[in-house]
Amino acid sequence: MQIAIIGAGNIGQAIAGGFIRNKAVEPEKLIVSDVCEASLAAIQKIDSNITTTKNNKEAAAKASMLILAVKPWLVQAVLFDIAKEISDDKIIVSCAAGIDFDFLSHTIDKQIALFRVMPNTAISIGESMTLIASQDTSKAQDDFVVSLFSKLGKALLISDNLMGAATSVASCGIAYALRYLRASTVGAVELGFTPETASLLVAQTMKGAAALMLTNQTHPEIEIDKVTTPGGWTIKGLNEMEAHGFSNAVIKGLKANRNS
Ligand SMILES: NC(=O)c1ccc[n+]([C@@H]2O[C@H](COP(=O)([O-])OP(=O)(O)OC[C@H]3O[C@@H](n4cnc5c(N)ncnc54)[C@H](OP(=O)(O)O)[C@@H]3O)[C@@H](O)[C@H]2O)c1
Q1: Could you tell me if 20 and 47 are in contact, meaning their C-beta atoms sit under 8 angstroms apart?
Q2: For FRET with 13, which of 3, 21, 130, 135 sits at 20 to 30 Å CA-CA?
Q3: CB hemisphere CA count around 147 (13 angstroms)
Q4: What class does CATH assign to 173-256?
Q5: How many Å lie between the centroid of ligand 1 and the Cα of residue 99?
Q6: What pLDDT digit, counting tens, does each position of 213-244 carry?
Q7: What is the pTM of this model?
Q8: Domain residues of the chain, as ranges?
Q9: Which of 31, 33, 35 most suits a substitution to test ligand 1, by most atoms within 8 Å of the C-beta?
Q10: Average pLDDT for residues 128-157, to the nearest whole number?
C-alpha cells in the first residue's frame, strides 16, 4: 500500500522515521508532502528513496492511505485542497488533536474510512503510546492501522468518545510525567547530587517504575506496597507528598485539558 504523510514536522518526521527504521513501510511506498523545504530535507535524510513533494495533491493522488500531520487549524484547508484526490476507497488518518470525526466527515463530504490517531512525542524514539479511533472502517483496516502504529511503540484502538481523555492521559501525559521528573531532579540536586547525576537517577528510576507496571501488568499501588515498609521511609515520603495534594493535583490536571 502506498502511504502519504501530509505535514513533515515533529509528528510527520517521527512517523516516517519509525515506519522506515522498523521496516513497517518500504521507503519506495512512502510519499511525504510539506510546504517547508527544510522539513522535506529532513525526510530525505531518513531515506533518500522516500518521495518528497511540496504538492499535497500529488501525494494524495498517489497514496491509498493519507496521514494528516499538519496543525489542527490547517486540516480543513488541506482536505479542501486535496478533495478531488479523495476517492471512496482511500483511508484518511488524522493525527490532529481535537479534530473529531464530525468535522472530518463534514469537510470531506463523503463516507470514507476515517481514523483519528493520537501519538505522543516518544513516537520519535519508537516508544509512543498511540490511541486510535475509527469510523466507517472494516476490522481488517482497524487491524492494519493498529499494527502499523504498534511498530512505533504501543497502539490501542479505543472508542472515539475517549479520544479527548486519551489526549490528556497519553499525549499531554508525556509533559506531566516530565514535570514530575523535573521536580524530582531539582529535589535530588537539593539533596546533594549534580544535575547530571540527578537526571540519570530520576530518569532511570521512572523507567524502572514504568517497566515494573508493564512487565508485571500490575496496578501501581501493588508495586508501591512492595516498597513501603510499615513505619519506613517510603511511606513517610508518600504521605508528605499526598499532604501537599500530589494525587489530587495530577487528577485535576488530567481533567482540566480534555478537549474533545
Ligand atoms: N507534537 C505532539 O506532541 C503531537 C502529539 C499528538 C498529535 N499531534 C498532532 O500532530 C499534528 C502535527 O503536529 P506537529 O507537532 O508535528 O506540528 P509541526 O511540527 O508544526 O508540523 C506540521 C508541518 O506541516 C507543515 N505544513 C503547514 N502547512 C502545510 C500545508 N498546507 N500542507 C502541508 N504541510 C504543511 C508545517 O510547515 P511550517 O512549519 O512551514 O508551517 C510543518 O512542517 C498536529 O495536528 C498535532 O495536533 C502532535
Answers
A1: yes
A2: 135
A3: 9
A4: mainly alpha
A5: 13
A6: 999 999 999 999 999 999 999 999 999 999 99
A7: 0.92
A8: 3-162, 173-256
A9: 35
A10: 97
Cell numbers 513501510: residue: 25
Ligand 1 pocket: which residues have CB below 6 Å?
6-12, 33-36, 39, 56, 69-72, 74, 78, 95-97, 118-121, 171
Who's near 25: CB < 8 A, 6+ residues apart? 3, 19, 148
Whether the Cβ atoms of residue 212 and residue 223 lie closer than 8 Å to each other? yes
Cell 518500504: give the residue: 26
Nearest CA to ligand 1 atom 17: 9
Nearest-atom number in ligand 1 for the CA of 97 is 47
- In angstroms, the CA 249 to CA 161 distance is 24
Per the CB < 8 A criterion, the answer to whether 184 and 191 are in contact is no
Quick one: which of 130, 117, 128 has its CA closest to 160? 117
CATH architecture type of domain 3-162: 3-Layer(aba) Sandwich (3.40)
Amino acid at 137: T
